[in-house]
Amino acid sequence: MARPGLNRERVVTEASVLVDEVGLDKLTLTALADRFGVAAPSLYKHVEGLDGLRRDLSVLAVSELADRLMGAAVGRSGREALERVAHAYRRFAQERPGLYVASLAAPEPGDDAHEAASARAVGVVQAVVEGYGLTGDDAIHSIRLIRSVLHGFVSLDAAGGFAMHQSTDTTFDHVIESLDASLANWSRR
After folding, report:
1. Residues 6 or more apart from 181 whose CB is under 8 A from it?
2. Residue 72 to residue 40: CA distance in whole angstroms
3. Mean pLDDT throughout 37-49?
4. Using an 8 Å Cβ cutoff, are 82 and 180 in contact?
């Protein structure tokens, strides 16, 4: 019998808190079950094992990231949109480090919920690059560029890879300036 008050949403939400504390790679059903005061097998009533939980975390992560990106970009275009989206991406990675890692997984084909969440996130960035006049293949390549640069920065920052005394905030401003210049001059390459 399921424990009263325990459901899939609550399990996934608590798992998201746990992965922010310990990292996605250290997520176990036992550690999660301990937080609820239940045995690990009882979680199988709510999630499809550890793999299913990781998938659910990915959907949650991409949905939350998409919401943040949308909130940052709405009503803005060009450099302002790029800057706001970049800062929202960085804040998400800083505030939700384990969930951020979960957001990196691409959806499995046929996983409608994960594909929809990913499409929302990509759609925000697509709107940003379209503000620079980029469409079609150029839009796809520029979206990949933005994601690669932002991911590289936030990952290195999280790992302590920027140990010099200069401000990482200033460096991040330069990253945004460089992305803006690249997008603005895309057709000249």
Report:
1. none
2. 39
3. 93
4. yes
Q: Rounded CA gap, 69 and 67, in Å?
A: 6
Give the DSSP per-residue string, 60-96.
HHHHHHHHHHHHHHTT--HHHHHHHHHHHHHHHHHHS
Report the predicted TM-score, pTM, of the whole model to 2 decimal places: 0.93
143: tokens are: 């979206």
Res 188: pLDDT: 62
- Phi, psi values for residue 163, rounded to 5°: -85, -5
Structure tokens at 23: 């990292």
With residue 173 as reference, give the H or E element that holds it. helix 168-184
Which tokens sit at 21? 């504390």
Q: Which two tokens stand for residue 149?
A: 């640069």
